[in-house]
Amino acid sequence: MQPQQPNLSGETHEMSFIDHLEALRWHIIRSAIAVVVFTTGAFFAKDFLFHDVILGPSRPDFWTYRMFCKFGNWVHAPDLCIDKIGFVIQNRQMSGQLTMHISTSFMAGICFTFPYLFWEIWRFVKPGLYPHERANSQGAVFFVSLLFALGLLFGYYIAAPLSINFLAGYVVDPTIENQIDMQSYLSTLSTMSLSCAFVFELPMIVFFLAKAGIVSPEIMQVYRKHAIVVILIIAAIITPPDISAQIIVTIPIMLLYELSIHIARVVRRGDTARLNAKLARQAERGAAQ
């Protein structure tokens, strides 16, 4: 089906290949402008971006560590209290801090503009969908953006601090100090956060696959054991070899998988209801004739 574009009279017409490229060009331009604006804002908000956000998990007064300390006091487990981070962040390259400032600002710009970027992608794809496909994907931008934000926050406040604390406290000999290069620290923080952000998109992926008839709740239930193994592997990849961290990351992913089964079941139920209603209308028209 050729993408359609509404004209001034409200009617739609098929777009040519050149029109298609022109529309894509403007979507890309608007997206690039949004990224540049937010990247520039993040660049000038250097103190907040680095001291409060990026370097937050490297200090013992970080929100996550304080919550773990309160929880440890509540359950009488003082070992859960993190009051010291055993490493020092260093810069070993002449232009290292400037490079990190630019790259981190760009990464922050991408994260902040993700809802708008996905909205632009959706605006480009939507004209090429059939009416029932558009109706089935209402609210896609909102839920994709919401799951991305929840995953990003989970990765930043849970997965990344646990990984940083474990790796910072791991020593093979007490005489060896952990002096971490800032690029290595930033890589760990961004990998943990962004990995969780994209893993949290699982329900929306299952929703679209279920709408397309590629997956079903029965298939997901049959392969639940296999999915658990895959989830454990994913948790092991995005977290350090720490059992507690892997369990904390595994639990929400498994809950997302169970939620995805329920979503696939709801999609199946809705499609069945629409099919039955369509067959009933056809039977009524046949009887009337």
Oligomeric state as shown: single chain
Number of strands: 4
Q: How helix-rich are the residues, as a percent range?
A: over 70%
Computed CA radius of gyration, to the nearest angstrom = 24 Å
Tally of contiguous helical segments:
11
Question: Which structural class should the secondary elements be placed in?
Answer: mainly alpha
Describe the largest sheet: 2 strands, antiparallel
Strand content: under 5%
* Strand order, sheet with most strands: 1-2
Poorly predicted sequence stretches spanning 5 or more consecutive residues: 7-12
User: What's the end-to-end separation, in Å?
Assistant: 33 Å
- Shape descriptor: flat
Instruction: Write down the secondary-structure element order.
Output: EEHHHEHHHEHHHHH
What is the overall pLDDT average?
83
